[in-house]
Amino acid sequence: MAQILVYSEKPAAARELVFKAKELGAALGLGVVAAALGEGAAGTAAGLGEYGADRVYVSEDSAFAGLPVDVVAEALAQVARAAGAEYLLVSSTRRGKELAPRVAQKLGAACVTDVNSLTLEDGVLVAGRYALGGATVALEKLDTQTKVFAIMPKTFEIGAPTAGAGEVFAPALSLQPSAVKLVDRRPKEGESVNLDAAERIVGVGRGFGKREDVALGEQLAAALEAELACTKGLADFQWLPEERIIGLSGAKTKPDLYVAVGISGQIQHTVGVSSSKLIAAINTDKDAPIFQLADYGIVGDLYQVVPALVEKLKGL
Ligand SMILES: Cc1cc2nc3c(=O)[nH]c(=O)nc-3n(C[C@H](O)[C@H](O)[C@H](O)COP(=O)(O)OP(=O)(O)OC[C@H]3O[C@@H](n4cnc5c(N)ncnc54)[C@H](O)[C@@H]3O)c2cc1C
Known about the structure:
The protein has helices spanning 11-28, 41-50, 69-83, 94-107, 214-223, 232-236, 267-270, 290-293, 302-314; strands at 3-7, 31-37, 55-59, 85-91, 110-115, 117-121, 124-131, 136-140, 147-151, 167-169, 200-204, 227-230, 257-261, 278-283, 296-299. The protein has 316 residues and is of the alpha/beta class. The strands form three sheets. It has a seven-stranded parallel beta sheet with strand order 5-9-4-1-2-3-10, with helices on both faces. A five-stranded parallel beta sheet has the order 12-11-13-14-15. It has a three-stranded antiparallel beta sheet with strand order 6-7-8, with no helix packed on it. A hairpin with a 2-residue loop joins strand 6 and strand 7. Bound molecules: flavin-adenine dinucleotide.
């Protein structure tokens, strides 16, 4: 039986992909296998079995230390061949976007990255991804025998674990040490923020008149226990670091709540928040595009609305 092979270096993303693969496998008559590689792989494997992998290929080989992409790509290609994988689902993280084409090249497969929807049409998987600077969604089908999809984290809803424990299997891998030599490791300069995982986000835009005023956005974020994010416009002013940009050039988020303050809602920004469960917007311009996306909107001056909201939230 042909298989769908799932891999992500992030255990939560791997579980999400396995859960989706189970659904697709049932429709396509394919089994689901997963790979867990590197330190802690044995622990990750159990979760993958529970979420739908019939078999998990586990290796904690020292060659995976630091998860070098060239070594992981070779290992995945070997696992894919051994398992008879027709489809590979990997996560479209920074590493995943490098990994997917490398594995695809080894398998003679077509590959698509940044996938944000995956649907079945007449037995064919159709991948959706933003195109033309986020102005449209391109739907793409791969016509090679083996197909590699790199899928944005949090694209699919994950349900409760229903499958039994998958079989854990130690593959016989033939691996060379990585061609990349790690010379030095330093903490990244600037703030570290994980907008991808944030449940609540307050986004600030050019409606803020000066740098100091961004403190108002910070106060609202604190009152909502939310992360602070921004538009590219604001980061271009260097009022907030690039890590906090949401949109085409920044993070693609999926929070429960997104509050857009002084943000017009250009498509290059909204592609990063359109999957939020609830969107609220504050803008002086009642015709601002953000209101077309928002579930709740306040047409008003942020300098009056935000302090009033913060005051209300403090009282709760
Ligand atoms: C290739 C490319 C990639 C891009 N990538 C990104 C990206 O990843 N992320 C991103 O954000 N942008 C991106 N952009 C830029 C994007 O097109 C917009 O220019 C940007 O998102 C606009 O930011 P903004 O909403 O802060 O500013 P503006 O569009 O200037 O909007 C400011 C809004 O604030 C409102 N406002 C003004 N004063 C007040 C007030 N006192 N109270 C309340 N509201 C007020 C105004 O009515 C207006 O709607 C990209 C552009 C290109 C070309």
